[in-house]
Design a protein that fits this description.
This protein is about 0% helix and about 50% strand. It is built from no helices and eleven strands. A hairpin with a 3-residue loop joins β9 and β10.
Length: about 130
């Protein structure tokens, strides 16, 4: 998905390797994905995420098949990032869903703050990418 760029100070034991989301029009739902590594001394888990680009709250999501070729978004269960391990999010497995306030174009930077149970908040900028089929 594009590369995340850290802004400000982040927790030293959590690193976001990649952060991105597809370009969309105003008031449309989209999915942000992150790659997180855990170099700390304990397992951790993302508990929520915030963004000033979102209209309303953000939610962990995952695809859910409705039958045939139809799919919908469903709440995702809590996930753990093991010590020394990584979490790789994608729209096909796990993502952060949001409704954007304004149109997002390829190359725009969108601020996100994933909050972790033990290590706290990590501020990042996600890169908007061109949607793929």
């Amino acid at each position: 998905m594009g590369h995340g760029r850290e802004s400000g100070q982040s927790a030293p034991d959590r690193r976001l390797e990649r952060a991105g989301l597809p370009a969309v029009r105003e008031q449309q739902d989209t999915a942000a994905c992150f790659d997180v590594t855990n170099g700390g001394g304990a397992d951790d888990r993302p508990v929520r995420a915030t963004s000033s680009a979102a209209s309303g709250g953000l939610a962990r999501g995952r695809p859910r098949m409705l039958g045939g070729s139809a799919a919908a978004r469903a709440d995702a269960p809590s996930v753990t990032v093991p010590t020394g391990g990584a979490l790789s999010m994608s729209p096909a497995r796990l993502d952060v869903t949001l409704t954007v306030r304004s149109r997002l174009r390829s190359g725009d930077l969108v601020p996100f703050t994933p909050h972790f149970e033990h290590s706290g908040a990590v501020r990042i900028l996600a890169v908007v990418i061109r949607p793929t089929a």
